[in-house]
Structure formats: structure tokens, C-alpha cells
UniProtKB/TrEMBL annotation:
Name the record gives this protein: VNX1 protein
Broad class of where this protein is predominantly found: membrane
Residue ranges crossing the lipid bilayer per the database entry: 154-179, 251-281, 336-356, 362-384, 396-417, 437-459, 471-491, 538-558, 590-609, 621-641, 662-681, 687-708, 715-735
Subcellular location: Endomembrane system
Membrane topology of the entry: Multi-pass membrane protein
Protein source organism: Peucedramus taeniatus (Olive warbler)
UniProtKB keywords: Antiport, Calcium, Calcium transport, Ion transport, Membrane, Phosphoprotein, Transmembrane, Transmembrane helix, Transport
Gene Ontology biological process terms, A to Z: intracellular calcium ion homeostasis
InterPro entries named among the record's database cross-references: CaH_exchang, NaCa_Exmemb, NCX_ion-bd_dom_sf, YccF
Compositionally biased residues, Basic and acidic residues: 23-37
Domain Sodium/calcium exchanger membrane region residues, every copy: 367-487, 590-732
A GO CC term attached to the entry: vacuolar membrane
Region annotation Disordered: where it falls in the sequence: 1-37
Gene: Vnx1
């Protein structure tokens, strides 16, 4: 961003003062050298690296305007002969409160977990009309709601409406037979028609204070509250509103009618909630159970809604227009996404079934392994949200410690439990599966995660740009980490002794060619001198250098070169808004959830490793493929979802950083921790990988760096990354199982 105006000199480009550009204070009082550097640092801005629509995050992106290189703004004429060393990316994000500002700042810090969802409650007026409708109660009457004949309403009729209506008819018959429950029989008869097709109808609570007073005076009323003739059943009587719980009809209703209907509505509520798009039906059933059925029958009024009757008088209890809403995937309960809420009972089922049914009388090992693996997904979500909540409400030191301690807890828990089980059984297959999972996580986060985000983000945005300098830091660390992790393997290839299990002479000539099987490099020759004297010290050296390089990367990006991620986060409220931060999870609550989730994660990992043995021995699929796909990518699904959400908002920088940070942590933190663990608890895990793992990892890192060189991408480049990932999966699928499995 400089133009050569004089030989040997370059001039720094400056952004003119714009409404979005931050104000620069005058620095004339400083020394000449510092004044020049300060002003140039503050005026130089480039916006072609970081672009993002963070509207859904409740933030605004303020970008300085970049002038052509040939122009000489008046604000910088006096510094036209300065040397431009670099142009700094400056982006200002305005958050809703200080906690959200801290969370957004943590998203741009290397080594911190990137979290898309809010950790505080968003102000109601800042939400879109679509989101407001998701959280509204089913008691709002709208003047024009359109046709009620929709696919979702028909689906309700087929799944719930017909049998729920039939149940009400049967309960009405029972109430009529009891004689005393006749008023409730008439109520159930009317509700049978309502729940068959509740759309476009309202249930109101009739208020009868004046009628009650008139009845006590001996004067009856003959008009309904809403106008028109009053049905016989709705005419007020002297006992309306008095002694409801002392009536005989109420006792009959509470014994014979209400429990059965409440159970049916509970079943409908749970089923509709699990289907997510039918959450309005769950709200309908829950509200009917709690607000309609406990009322006296004379206080319930069911009406067909007409446009001429809007607005209605009286309290509206139920008014539903749509049974399905596809936007309910955004729904959250206390800040927790509805998918994570629905998967939480799966964790309880997994733990109970896994530890109670140890002899596998109820289910087999395959089912328990699948349940344990699926349970890891919601637990990973809770761990991620707890880490983000604690970091957003704490200082930098606490956030760094929490992210470093629990950032990789999901993967490490599974790996360590698998290695312990393999050591106890003397089975080397577990160590090979762990190596496959490590390689699969590395390859998946380098190819699949950014590639998928590019494809999905490219559908909405024709071209996406990202911060190539920050991606370059991660790429350099990836090159270093991959070289360090596979250095012992390459060393063994050079100095190891090739040993084969079986060889056949193809030409029947002693000097001819031999065909050998099950060949590998033996490092244990001469009582393991090569391994214990050369390879093992190299492994320990690499395991020390890699975390040290990770710490240097943190110091580089977070301390000395913070301008690479020059994101200014402001916690100022948007104009006209004055809200205090209402966090979903306090620090203590987040800490408790974090510890409980980690404990449950350990139990699920133990169950997964306990029941994976039959799958590894009896499956026709290569153990390489199982480790690279299922065991590697299932725990990363919450991170993949976060990356996709960032990409849809044109913030591809964070999508790429998610994959890169996981890959770097695999090589620089997880693998050294596993090596350190083997020192205190001997296992079969050694830092020697198969050739397939080495070639796949190195090729993936090289391809990723080639794609990320220019700082921009589109869906085609993302498709290339995804296709290469699937090609590698095909290679692993058809590869023979590792030796010892």
C-alpha cells in the first residue's frame, strides 16, 4: 500500500477521516521520530484481509476507507517521506457489553477456543422478528396470519392430531358416563375438535366476576363477555369460581380424565421437542396441560378466529397458527442450543446402560459404543461453552490457563483411556487406533473443516477474504509441528533394520527377486540399542521442543506482534441501547458444568474404549478408517458447527483458525502429553507412525498452505480441499489393517 514518489523512498498510505474510522489524537508534543511512527501506525489501515458481517453477533464492523496509493491526503503530507514498513489491519467490533467484547477478543487470540454463540443474554429489542417469534408464547392473536393449510400443520394432523382428538372423545364419553363429570365431558368434546386442527382457533379464559356478584344477588346474566348469545354451558351459575376443588365433578376429573390427558400431552410434548421443528406443538401441549385442563369447564371458551374479531377481549390462553418452524435450530434454553439440550438425556442413557448392563444382556457392544460416541458431542459443546464463559468473564491469565488445560480435554480423555485399556490387555491395536485418530484429527482440521466452511460460506458469498498473516502463523506452526512429530518416524526409516515376516523367491533363482510380506523397520535389534539410545531420546526431545514452540507462538501473537490480529473490541452499546450484561452461566456455574462435563466425558470415553474391541476384531473395515473418521471427527463436530456459522457470516478468518488451532494443538500439545503419560504409565504408544499417516499429513499441510497463500478463497477451492479429504478417506478405507490388529 505504498507508492514510490522518490527514488529509494516509500510513503505510508493514510485513511482519511471517516465516520467509521477511529479518531486519532494529536501527537505533536512527542519527539519527531516517535510522532511520525505513532501517526503512521494509527493512520495506516488495510481492509482487504478481514471482512465480516457480524450482525447476528450483535456487533458492528467499522472499517477505515483506503485511499489510492497515488493520492496524498493532507493529514499525512508532513509525513510523506516516512518509510512504510507494513500496513496494519484495523477492525473495530462493537459488542453489546463488556463480557461479549471480551469473548469476541478471545476469538481472535491464538490458542483460545473460538465460540460463536452468545455467553450473555441478548437484549430483546436487538433480536430479529424471526427469533422473537421463536420465544413468544402461544397466546398472541394476529390479524392476518395467512392460510393455515401448510405442510407442517398437515404433519401435525398425521402425527398427533387424529389420535389426540380420539383420546379426548373417549375421555368425554367416560365423563358423561360418570354423570357428575358431564361438564368436563362437554369440555373434552370441544377440545377434541380443537386438537384435531388447532390452527386459527383460540382458547380464552372467561372472566366472570360481575356474573358471580349478580348471581349472589339473585340476578342472572344472559350475555357473554365477548358479545352474542352465551352457550348454555357458559352461562354463569352461583358456584362459578367458588369451591372448585370441593366439587364432586372435579374429583372425578382429576381421577379419571386429567391424568390420562396429561400423559398424552406429555408424550406429544417430548416427541415434538425432540423433532425441534415441531417445538410449537410442544409448547401447545405444555400450555394446554398447565393452563387449560386445570381450569373449571365453565371458564374455558373455544372460538374460531375471524379477522373481524381482532383484537379480542379477555385473556387468550392458546392461539396457534403454525405447527412447524424451520428456524427453531436457533432456539436456545439458558444459552444452550436446543440440539445440545436434546442430546443431554442421551448421556444419562449411555452411562446407565453402560455401567448397569455390563454383561450386555440388553444391548450389544456396538450399540453401547455408538451411544458413548454420540454422547461425546453434547459434552464437547458444554465444555466449549463453559470455557468460553469463564474466559469471557476473567482476565487474560485465567482464560489462557483454562483454554490450555481444558481445550483438548475431549480428545485426551479418549486417547488416554484407550491406551490404558490396550496396555492392560496387551493389545497393540489400541495404540494404532489412537495414532489413526490423531492423524485423522490433523488431516480433518486441515482439509475438511476449512474446506467445508469455504463451500458453505461460498454459497452465500461469491468470494471470501481472510487474514493471510494470521493464517501464515498457524501454517508455520503446522509445518514445524508436523516435521517434529514425524521426525522419529523418518529417523527409524533411515537407521532401522527392515524385517519381513515372510518372503518368496519369485524367479526361483537365489539371486533373483523376492516377494515379502509384513515388512517393517525393526528398532529393537541388539537388545533395542537403536531405539533406547537414539529413537527414544529423540522422541523426548521433540516432545519438549513442540510445546516450547507453541508457547513461543502464543507469545508472538499475543504479546509482541498483536497487530497481526489488530481487532479493536469496544464494549460500547449501540445507539439508544443501555443494557447491563446478563450472563447465561456465571463463572462458578460454568466451572461446575465444566468439571461435571469432563467427568462424564471420562466415563463415556471409558465405555467407548470398553466396547470398541469387538468392533475392531470383527469389523471388515480397516482400523485405520475407524480411527481416522469416527474417533477423530465426532468429538470435533461442535467446532465444525462454529466454523460453519462464522463462514456464513463472511468471517472466514475464524473458520480457518478453528481448524488450524486444533491441528496445532494435536501436534504440539496432545501428542507430547501422550508421550509424557507413557513415561509414568507404560503403554504401547510410540511416536512411530505408518507411512500412510506420514504422507497424508504432510500432503495435507502443503495443500492447505498453497490454498491459503493469497488470503482469499471461494467455494471451488473449498471443494478441492473437501475432495482431497474424501480421497484420503478412500485410501484409508481400502488400506489393510495395521499389524497387530
Amino acid at each position: 500500500m505504498a507508492s514510490d514518489t522518490e527514488p529509494g523512498r516509500r510513503r505510508r498510505c493514510c485513511a482519511q477521516d471517516t465516520p467509521d474510522a477511529p479518531k486519532v489524537p494529536d501527537s505533536r508534543g512527542d519527539s519527531d521520530g516517535s510522532r511520525r511512527g505513532s501517526l503512521c501506525d494509527r493512520h495506516c489501515a488495510a481492509i482487504n484481509n478481514v471482512q465480516g458481517d457480524l450482525g447476528d453477533l450483535g456487533c458492528h464492523l467499522h472499517r477505515p476507507r483506503v485511499l489510492p496509493a497515488t493520492s496524498t491526503p493532507s493529514c499525512c503530507q508532513q509525513h510523506s517521506e516516512e518509510v512504510c514498513e507494513s500496513c496494519v489491519v484495523k477492525t473495530t467490533l462493537t459488542a453489546e457489553n463488556a463480557v461479549e467484547a471480551n469473548k469476541l477478543s478471545n476469538n481472535y487470540k491464538f490458542g483460545f477456543k473460538k465460540w460463536k454463540s452468545h455467553v450473555t443474554a441478548r437484549p430483546w429489542e436487538d433480536r430479529s422478528e424471526i427469533v422473537k417469534e421463536l420465544y413468544s408464547d402461544l397466546n398472541i392473536v394476529r390479524g392476518s396470519a395467512g392460510s393455515t393449510l401448510t405442510c407442517g400443520n398437515v404433519l401435525y394432523l398425521l402425527l398427533f392430531g387424529w389420535w389426540l382428538s380420539l383420546l379426548y372423545v373417549l375421555v368425554a364419553a367416560v365423563m358423561f358416563i360418570t354423570i357428575m363429570g358431564a361438564p368436563y365431558g362437554r369440555l373434552c368434546w370441544d377440545l377434541a375438535g380443537y386438537f384435531l386442527w388447532p390452527f386459527g382457533k383460540v382458547i380464552q379464559k372467561v372472566e366472570v366476576p360481575k356474573s358471580h356478584q349478580a348471581c349472589e344477588a339473585g340476578v342472572g346474566e344472559s350475555s357473554a363477555l365477548l358479545g352474542g348469545p352465551t352457550p348454555l354451558r357458559w352461562r354463569p351459575r352461583c358456584w362459578v369460581g367458588t369451591g372448585y376443588w370441593q366439587r364432586a365433578s372435579t374429583a372425578v376429573w382429576l381421577c379419571l380424565g386429567y391424568p390420562l390427558l396429561a400423559l398424552a400431552h406429555g408424550l406429544v410434548c417430548v416427541t415434538a421437542w425432540l423433532l425441534i421443528v415441531l417445538i410449537p406443538v410442544a409448547k401447545l401441549s405444555a400450555r394446554a396441560t398447565s393452563r387449560v385442563l386445570p381450569l373449571p369447564p365453565e371458564r374455558v371458551l373455544i372460538r374460531h378466529l375471524r379477522m373481524t374479531e381482532v383484537p379480542l377481549e379477555g385473556e387468550v390462553i392458546l392461539c396457534c397458527y403454525r405447527a412447524a418452524n424451520p428456524y427453531y435450530y436457533k432456539y436456545a434454553v439458558d444459552g444452550i442450543n436446543v440440539f445440545a439440550v436434546n442430546l443431554l438425556p442421551l448421556v444419562l442413557v449411555t452411562l446407565v446402560l453402560g455401567y448397569v448392563d455390563s454383561p450386555n444382556h440388553l444391548t450389544g457392544s456396538a450399540v453401547k459404543f455408538t451411544l458413548a460416541l454420540l454422547s461425546i458431542m453434547p459434552l464437547s459443546y458444554y465444555i466449549g461453552m463453559a470455557i468460553a464463559s469463564i474466559s469471557a468473564q476473567s482476565n487474560f491469565a485465567v482464560g489462557a490457563v483454562v483454554n490450555a488445560t481444558f481445550g483438548s480435554i475431549t480428545e485426551l480423555t479418549f486417547y488416554i483411556t484407550a491406551l490404558i485399556k490396550g496396555s492392560r490387555e496387551g493389545n497393540r491395536c489400541y495404540a494404532e487406533v489412537v495414532k489413526s485418530a490423531l492423524t485423522g484429527t490433523l488431516v480433518g482440521c486441515v482439509l475438511f473443516v476449512p474446506g467445508l466452511c469455504m463451500v458453505i460460506g461460498g454459497i452465500r458469498h461469491q468470494e471470501q477474504r481472510f487474514n493471510s498473516r494470521s493464517a501464515g502463523v498457524s501454517s508455520a506452526l503446522l509445518f514445524l509441528s508436523v516435521g517434529g512429530v514425524f521426525a522419529p518416524t523418518l529417523f527409524s526409516k533411515v537407521y532401522g533394520k527392515l524385517v519381513c515376516g515372510e518372503c518368496h523367491n519369485v524367479t526361483q533363482n537365489p539371486l533373483g527377486h523376492y516377494l515379502c510380506h509384513n515388512c517393517h523397520f525393526d528398532l529393537m535389534d541388539n537388545n533395542g540399542t537403536l531405539y533406547y539410545s537414539h529413537v527414544q531420546p529423540l522422541v523426548y526431545t521433540v516432545s519438549i521442543l513442540l510445546p516450547a514452540a507453541y508457547l513461543i507462538g502464543l507469545f508472538f501473537t499475543l504479546k509482541t506482534h498483536t497487530h497481526i490480529y489488530d481487532i479493536h473490541i469496544s464494549d460500547c452499546h449501540m445507539p439508544g441501547h443501555h443494557h447491563s450484561a446478563v450472563v447465561h452461566w456465571s463463572r462458578w456455574r460454568a466451572l461446575v458444568i465444566l468439571l461435571l462435563s469432563t467427568l462424564c466425558m471420562s466415563a463415556c470415553a471409558d465405555l467407548a474404549t470398553e466396547h470398541i474391541s469387538p468392533i475392531l476384531t470383527n469389523s471388515t473395515i480397516s482400523q485405520y478408517f475407524i480411527g481416522v473418521t469416527v474417533l477423530a471427527m465426532v468429538p470435533e463436530l461442535p467446532e465444525i458447527v462454529n466454523g460453519i456459522q462464522f463462514a456464513l457470516q463472511n468471517n472466514l478468518s475464524l473458520s480457518i483458525e478453528i481448524g488450524n488451532c486444533i491441528a496445532v494443538q494435536v501436534c504440539m500439545l496432545q501428542i507430547p502429553i501422550l508421550v509424557l503419560f507413557t513415561i509414568f504409565y507404560p503403554t504401547n504408544f510410540t511416536l512411530l507412525f505408518s507411512d500412510l499417516h506420514v504422507y497424508a499429513s504432510m500432503f495435507s499441510v502443503v495443500l492447505m498452505n498453497y490454498i491459503f497463500m493469497d488470503g482469499k478463497c471461494d467455494y471451488f477451492q473449498g471443494t478441492v480441499l473437501v475432495m482431497v479429504y474424501f480421497i484420503l478417506l478412500a485410501v484409508y478405507f481400502f488400506a489393510p489393517s495395521p499389524s497387530g490388529c
